[in-house]
UniProtKB/TrEMBL annotation:
Pfam families: LRR_8. The keyword Signal applies. Residues 1-26 form the signal peptide. It is a single-pass type I membrane protein. This is Receptor-like protein, putative. The keyword Membrane applies. It is found in: Membrane. The lineage of its organism: Eukaryota, Viridiplantae, Streptophyta, Embryophyta, Tracheophyta. GO terms for cellular component: membrane.
């Protein structure tokens, strides 16, 4: 009886320690800064849209605040596992804008544990710089649907070794969509394509 009590209080203590480690510690500082840089990039580059009557949903990122004590794992559009960001859903922040959005994809470099990145519906036409998409080794799902991307972005995705799901639906892909086996170097099993 006594031993059982000791073991169960020990278990309770260990569980409490684990919860403190994962829940309350919050996200990595490098990832918190990374998220703020993404927000800054969008605000700096595109906030003028709202004054022109185009839709701009930066309010969705209101919880992304520059405060060291703020746990970015509970921020909107962010999902963590064991204190690191595994899902980032940055869809539909910039809509219906006539000018192309050129995204700085280097901003995603700090998120080494990322499994899912959703960039759907942002009027994105390409990436800036020639570095290509950062080699996020664990990225499994990349949703680029409903943008203005053409086939030229495919070669920039070469470093995504774990990619299994790529959604390029509703973009402006052309007839050269399957150039010399580029796409076959990915182990894609779901692939949505609609002209
Ligand atoms: C893109 O983002 C990276 C990482 O924050 C930064 O170092 C680089 O200067 C940015 N490039 C441009 C052209 O803004
Ligand atoms: C990305 O976001 C869009 C818009 O909310 C949603 O329809 C889609 O299912 C999301 N993609 C993934 C892979 O979660
Ligand atoms: C594809 O998109 C890139 C980036 O926006 C652009 O530089 C290029 O001219 C486009 N190619 C075609 C064939 O439209």
């Amino acid at each position: 009886m006594k031993l059982g009590l000791i073991i169960s209080s020990l278990l309770y203590f260990v569980t409490l320690m684990l919860m403190q480690n994962q829940g309350c510690k919050g996200c990595l500082e490098k990832e918190r800064i990374g998220l703020l840089e993404i927000k800054h990039y969008i605000v700096e580059g595109y906030s003028y849209l709202s004054t022109k009557g185009y839709s701009y949903n930066i309010k969705e990122l209101d919880s992304w605040v520059d405060d060291r004590d703020s746990n970015c794992c509970v921020w909107n559009r962010v999902k963590c596992f064991s204190g690191q960001i595994v899902e980032l859903s940055i869809y539909s922040l910039i809509n219906d804008f006539p000018d192309p959005i050129m995204l700085n994809v280097s901003l995603f470099r700090p998120f080494e544990e990322l499994r899912l990145l959703n960039l759907s519906s942002n009027h994105i036409q390409g990436w800036i710089g020639n570095e290509g998409f950062p080699g996020l080794k664990k990225l499994e799902t990349l949703d680029l649907s409903t943008n203005y991307l053409n086939s030229s972005i495919l070669s920039s995705l070469n470093g995504l070794m774990a990619l299994t799901t790529l959604n390029l639906g509703y973009n402006i892909l052309d007839d050269n969509f399957f150039p010399q086996g580029t796409i076959y170097s990915y182990n894609l099993f779901i692939f949505q394509y609609k002209r």
